[in-house]
Amino acid sequence: HLTLNKLQLHVQDLRQWEKENGFPRQIDELMQLPALYRLALNELQNKIDVIKTEWQIRDGFSPIEHIKSRIKEPKSILQKMERKGYELSSENMEQYIHDIAGMRIVCAFVKDIYRLVDHLCIREDIRVLEIKDYIAHPKPNGYQSLHLIVSIPLILLEGTRWVKAEIQLRTLAMDFWASMEHILYYKFDKKLPPHVAEELKEAARAADELDQKMLRLRTEILELSDGAGN
Ligand code: GTP
Ligand code: MG
């Protein structure tokens, strides 16, 4: 169900772009790209589903709470290219825009995020190109998540093509904070009043404490159930 909608939207955006900026070459290739990213994202989704099911079978539950995927809107891709000052071409788009295919994996516990990342790093069918650990090193505003830029092999008639995707891994508490902050502020162009920024940061610390408390509780419960011979 991607394509018609997405592709048409894309064509419209490109036409608009063409009107405003004059259009470079390679329009055909540019139009095919979103379809490739959608396919790659489906592949990635499958891989994560397998991990989730395996975890479920082995441990009785999966630490992956939920997964969300999205393809970046053509308009946002064009805006990002413009904002970053790249000439509009499919090469630049592939090289510089890492989050055309995006996946967010929300886990129950921080530990599970690192377990999952360790696993993703050793797989041969996923290349981890970049890791940004905003859990160990939160952003100045308090934002926490672990971001991976990966590339996924898409086997096509023309051969194998490695397609990039961004994976954001978070706990439920981090996801709550980030979603709220996004609603309240993210990409809001004015500066926040200092006390608001400080309170948001405080809320991020509260989310972090909640994560740690839950982890402690889990450890305690696991020890109790081990002690009971379960
Ligand atoms: P862009 O923001 O996409 O230009 O890339 P970047 O190089 O800044 O990458 P980064 O890994 O910092 O952020 C990528 C994505 O993470 C963003 O598009 C958001 O979805 C998310 N993100 C990063 N920082 C924040 C933040 O402060 N608040 C929220 N809510 N989300 C954030
Ligand atoms: Mg950013």
UniProtKB/TrEMBL annotation:
Highest taxon of the lineage: Bacteria
SMART domains named among the record's database cross-references: RelA_SpoT
GO terms (BP aspect): guanosine tetraphosphate biosynthetic process
UniProt keyword Kinase present: yes
Pathway: Purine metabolism; ppGpp biosynthesis; ppGpp from GTP: step 1/2
Gene Ontology molecular function, alphabetical: kinase activity
Record keywords: Kinase, Transferase
RelA/SpoT domain boundaries: 69-192
InterPro entries found in the cross-reference section: GTP_Pyrophosphokinase, NT_sf, RelA_SpoT
Protein name: GTP pyrophosphokinase
Organism in which the protein naturally occurs: Paenibacillus wynnii
